[in-house]
Specification:
nine-stranded mixed beta sheet; mainly beta; single chain; six-stranded antiparallel beta sheet; 764 residues
């Protein structure tokens, strides 16, 4: 009977399962395991039992954990614990630094939040509520939470928001168009033009009314700044969907170009220059701030610039002018009362044009109580990016650099805000992820704003080409090992958005096909970057359906990438957070309790929900975290019998000890792929073969079974049942027949177990 030895010393591909169980020719077959539970792959490609978890605090609910690192000191790095209607901020020592109650997120929407942080501000966004700004005062060490609002200019005349005409067909009529401070003479002139009584508006206060020809106003508009023409007003009250009382903040007028009137000698027709005027024949306009020149010979009803309370404002009665002809989008003609005495460009450099009636182009801030709030928030190149609201799902807006409340597009210069409409094919923005490029993930595709070392992002240069079809879920994406990683819109796979080689084009592919059965509606993601003695980075997704976690390791330099699965006995992982060198998780127990745990990356215990107790040669103990439970226990390498805690958490041990760990066992399993057996007639996969023996190269192992046999022998327990960890080759006789015999390494007892390599011997 032929025999062979199948050597494996690299587990870099993690678990590959049934996906390649019939592909012994695949490279990843020899670099992976068939199945695993509570194992992780380290940076040196060792398969190691995952860390135990230390119970830090009992909590009141399952929480979404996020991190905010202002600096690496304990009092400047923060764990944000979101629960329904609540946010608690813990620092690096887990001391509570602030609690915010009555927050707008719920048990379901808190998993949809996007959180962007830069320096001393964090932005919390979801389309279901008004965006919140969390600020940290470094001097006082305190936090504040305020609802998001766009900034205003120093004189408060400009609301620094991007405005949008949500209904371009709406036309408005006003009783006043001027800001406070207009003198009584001009008031009389405007009253004459309007044909209204002065009591219907207050020019001194800049107040009046606006009416629309379609339903516009709701109670949510009260207090809202709105724009039309070059003016701005605030809604003071709403009388109905088509009428509102307003206060004008900035004259609702269009500033015309210098000398905007073309007058022809002997003619009463005046051609007016006004870029993108939007007028049609029959519309009426009012001119004011004219200088005394050729234009005033024709336009007697215009309001002159040079006037006083004792001087007539015009040679005739102030009036509105009817558009007689539209030349093109930048020029139109009106008919004056007089005739020009010369051919000339006239009017001066301060002419403004008003329309009191049927004025189009009513615009509102893109985000407001009336129009909703952004789904996505993030920082990139010192700009705050917002997008994905319900009425503008495929739009994104970036603040001015370094001014996260200034979204005024201005003139499109490098220090102005940026506006983007029409990202993708009717897609909704869900995430911004910052790197050299800015990834914009939507519900239908992935896009990116290209970075540049030569020019800044401006309104002129900004663009968002598509990287690939296939949208992203609400689950938080991450930049991990030089690639953007996110869960697809169906919640069925993890996708990688990366640039390969020297190609500048992004490639996107599902990378979790080998663990598709482990992807069960991921609801939260966290990245752990490791620490000084734990150099392996991990990206972790917690499942909402089964309470487990999918853990990805990646090292492109070594062509290592794969997934493992973690779970916790009698409980579920709700979320994870990597805070500098620490890895935390929110855990929901089957008995209805909730806990905040920290992974013991120092390797002191492999128990879950563990508590460390210290004393001085004592056998009497009191737990501050546990009561009325039977728990596993150990002191260093010494395994102890289970301990029973009373209602006060008190218990005894048989021995006097200085240190003790108590907690719940962590079951684990590592199942190797079927050994590769081949003969001169080809591979024997599918035929009956016998797995005879296994040689395992251990690394600091002191627990576990191999094919049902104890990994350690009696010789490894020299005294007091304290084992000596083994880091050497050990042989185990297996004797398993089958078409796909697989070696299983498993257990649940406390102790470290790590596999460097294995040699499987088979007969066929």
């Amino acid at each position: 009977m032929p025999s062979l030895r199948d050597f494996r010393s690299n587990f870099a591909a993690g678990r590959t399962g049934e996906a390649i169980s019939a592909r012994p020719d695949a490279q990843s077959y020899q670099m992976s395991v068939y199945d695993a539970r509570n194992f992780m792959i380290t940076s040196d490609n060792i398969a190691r039992r995952r860390w135990g978890t230390e119970l830090m605090q009992w909590r009141d609910a399952a929480e979404r954990l996020e991190t905010w690192v202002v600096s690496e000191s304990d009092d400047m790095r923060f764990l944000l614990a979101f629960s329904p209607g609540r946010l608690e901020i813990l620092d690096g020592t887990l001391a509570s630094r602030a609690v915010f109650e009555d927050m707008p997120w719920t048990e379901s929407t808190m998993w949809f939040l996007t959180i962007g942080a830069e320096r001393y501000n964090a932005v919390i966004a979801d389309a279901s509520f008004r965006t919140q700004i969390l600020a940290f005062d470094t001097a006082a060490g305190t936090f504040s939470m305020e609802p998001f609002d766009f900034d205003t200019s120093g004189d408060e005349r400009y609301y620094l928001a991007p405005f949008f005409a949500f209904d371009k067909e709406v036309k408005c009529s006003f009783t006043t168009l001027t800001a406070p401070g207009v003198d009584t003479a001009l008031a009389a002139a405007l009253e004459s033009i309007l044909g209204t009584e002065a009591g219907e508006f207050d020019l001194a206060a800049g107040t009046g009314t606006v009416t629309t020809d379609q339903d516009v106003f709701t109670d949510e508009h009260v207090g809202l700044r709105m724009k039309i023409a070059d003016g701005e007003f605030v809604v003071d009250s709403v009388a109905g969907p088509r009428e509102a009382s307003i206060s004008v903040i900035r004259d609702i007028a269009i500033a015309l170009d210098d000398t905007p009137f073309w007058c022809v000698n002997g003619s009463n027709i005046v051609e007016v220059s006004c870029e993108d005027h939007g007028l049609k024949v029959g519309d009426q306009v009012v001119f004011f701030n004219l200088q005394q020149d050729t234009a005033t010979e024709v336009l007697h009803g215009a309001l002159y610039l040079e006037y006083s309370n004792t001087t007539d404002r015009s040679n005739g009665t102030p009036c509105a002018y009817t558009v007689k002809r539209v030349v093109d989008e930048n020029f139109f003609c009106v008919e004056g009362e007089g005739t020009a005495s010369s051919t000339d460009l006239a009017g001066g450099n301060s002419v403004k044009m008003m329309r009191f009636w049927d004025l189009p182009g009513l615009r509102e801030p893109v985000f407001s109580p009336a129009r909703g709030w952004p789904q996505a928030a993030g920082f990139h190149e010192t700009r705050l990016w917002l997008g994905g609201s319900v009425p503008l799902p495929d739009a994104a807006f970036a603040s001015a650099p370094g001014s996260m409340l200034d979204f005024d597009p201005g003139t499109g210069e490098a220090d102005d805000a940026v506006t983007m409409y029409g990202i993708g094919d009717q897609s909704r923005v869900r995430h911004f992820v910052s790197s050299f490029d800015l990834a914009i993930l939507t519900d239908r595709g992935a896009y990116y704003v290209p970075g540049s070392t030569e020019r800044a992002i401006t309104q002129e240069t900004v663009r968002a080409p598509k990287a690939a079809d296939g949208g992203a879920a609400y689950t938080k994406p991450f930049l991990f090992d030089t690639a953007f990683l996110y869960v697809d819109a169906n919640g069925a796979s993890v996708r990688e958005m990366s640039i390969q080689g020297d190609d500048s084009q992004y490639y996107i592919a599902p990378i979790s096909t080998v663990v598709s059965d482990w992807i069960n509606a991921p609801r939260h993601t966290a990245r752990y970057d490791g620490a000084a003695d734990v150099v392996t980075p991990y990206l972790i997704w917690s499942n909402s359906d089964d309470g487990g976690a999918v853990v990805m390791h990646s090292n492109r330099a070594d062509q290592a990438m794969g997934f493992m699965r973690w779970d916790i006995e009698g409980a579920s992982f709700a979320s994870f957070a990597g805070l500098s060198r620490d890895l935390y998780a929110s855990v929901e127990l089957d008995d209805g309790r909730f806990a905040l745990v920290r992974f013991d990356t120092e390797g002191r215990t492999t128990l879950d929900l563990a508590e460390r107790l210290t004393g001085s040669a004592t056998d009497e103990w009191v737990s501050q975290m546990h009561a009325d439970e039977t728990l596993a226990a150990h002191s260093g390498l010494l395994r102890l019998s289970d301990v029973e805690l009373d209602g006060a958490g008190a218990f005894f041990t048989a021995d006097t000890l200085d240190e003790l760990w108590i907690g719940s066992p962590m079951p684990y399993e590592l199942v190797a792929h079927t050994p590769i057996a081949a003969s001169g007639q080809g591979p024997q996969l599918g035929n009956m073969v016998r797995l005879v023996s296994a040689d395992i190269l251990w690394s600091g192992t002191w627990t576990g079974t191999v094919g049902g046999q104890e990994a350690l022998s009696a010789l490894d327990f020299p005294a007091l049942e304290v084992p000596t960890p083994i880091s050497e080759w050990r042989k185990y006789m297996i004797g398993e027949w089958g078409t796909a015999p697989r070696l299983a390494i498993e257990g649940s007892a406390v102790g470290e177990i790590a596999v460097r390599a294995m040699v499987l011997k088979v007969y066929f």
